[in-house]
Amino acid sequence: MGHLNNVAFAALFEDARVRMNQQLGRVSRGKMAEGSFRAVVARNEINYLAEGSFPEDVEIAIGIGRIGNRSFDMLSAAFQSGQCIATCDTTIVMTDPKGESLPADFVERLKAVQLTSQ
């Protein structure tokens, strides 16, 4: 059995972010969706909690954390055999040169999948 290295974790979390962007309507068939906005990853922090094994399946859970005026955080966790083996906190920032805020309809979609503590 092999070891999941840091590059493998980064790729798994990136794939989850792409899928989340598709769910949120920002990306359609690999291209920016009509009426969407440009954004970049400003911060990406991965915390390794346990060794990951290859080729065992890895499940990624993802949701939205903080929502700001021009940015938001995607929060992810990787699980193997029911154990959390890594977390990833990513800040996504709009690149609109005019300084526009996140579109209101997009903020509503973010709120629908925002993680909250109870």
UniProtKB/TrEMBL annotation:
Protein origin, superkingdom: Bacteria
InterPro entries, per the entry: HotDog_dom_sf (IPR029069)
Protein name, per record: Thioesterase superfamily protein
Organism this protein belongs to: Sphingomonas jeddahensis
Upper lineage: Bacteria, Pseudomonadati, Pseudomonadota, Alphaproteobacteria, Sphingomonadales
